[in-house]
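Good day; I would like, with your permission, to put a structural problem before you. What I wish to show you is a protein chain and, alongside it, a tokenised description of its three-dimensional fold. Thank you for your consideration; the sequence and its tokens are set out here:
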Amino acid sequence: MASGASRPLERLAVTSRVAAAVVGGYAFANAVAIFLSHVLPIPRASAVLAMTLASFGIYAAAVIFVFATRTALRAWLGLLVPSAVIGAAAWLLGMNA
């Protein structure tokens, strides 16, 4: 049985993972969808539609990733760092469009 002192830490870790899944997963799925809608060699409307549909699967994979990592910090870093890199690349591509 867990001690009384570790319970709040466990709850905080789970809360942090849930927040990472909701916020970080959403940011990651959107960044990937925006980036790939710029890069796919199909008409723009079709690319946006395809990536909007694919973002649901990407989001689900991000949620699974968050709860599969060892720590909440890894979950946050594993979503926010790639989101920032992909988002920056999408922003640069969007400036040229």
